[in-house]
Amino acid sequence: MMNKKTIHTSSAQETLALAQRCAQLLKGGEIIFLRGPIGAGKTVFVKGVAGALGLKSSPTSASFSLMKRYQNRKNTLFHIDLFRLSEGEVFNLGFEEMLENEKAIILAEWPDPIAQMMPQDRLEMDFVLQGEDKRKITLCAYGPTSQALAEELCKTNNK
Predict the structure, then answer these.
(1) CB 128 within 8 A of CB 136
(2) How many domains is the chain partitioned into structurally?
(3) How far apart, in whole angstroms, are the C-alpha atoms of residue 7 and residue 137?
(4) pLDDT digits over 84-126, tens only?
(5) pLDDT interval class at 159 (50, 70, 90)
(6) In a designed cystine with 147, which of 16, 42, 97, 141 is the match (CB 3.0 to 4.6 A)?
(7) CATH number of the domain that 123 lies in?
(8) Between residues 86 and 24, the one the model is more confident about
């Protein structure tokens, strides 16, 4: 069952704050798909999550390396960016290892090429630019873990 919710942010700082609240809710094992045009705030969101988790090196757009792993004693974060890749091009990128780590947090930008490989329980976030720095972020939760995460994110975002 899919559950859809919407959050609005008015600045990069508000998108970052949303990411930080999201990070506080993550227990490990979550998968979040991030969609939207270039400049919509996907990488800002990833940076906010990584920073709030205490991961030292700040994620950049992973477009040139496809998958980056950030780790400390408590957390493992995989940042995937599959911009311009097709489903056939993603098979040997190490997703099996990533999925075997049940406590890893997976944030995937441009996720469509791997959608069929991922577990069903995931949160999909669609970032839509609405002029200036305003964004409409639609959350689609598939599965109980993602649904609980979406509910909590919407509780703390009163816009």
Answers:
(1) yes
(2) 1
(3) 5
(4) 777 767 766 767 778 888 889 999 998 888 888 777 899 999 9
(5) very low
(6) 141
(7) 3.40.50.300
(8) 24
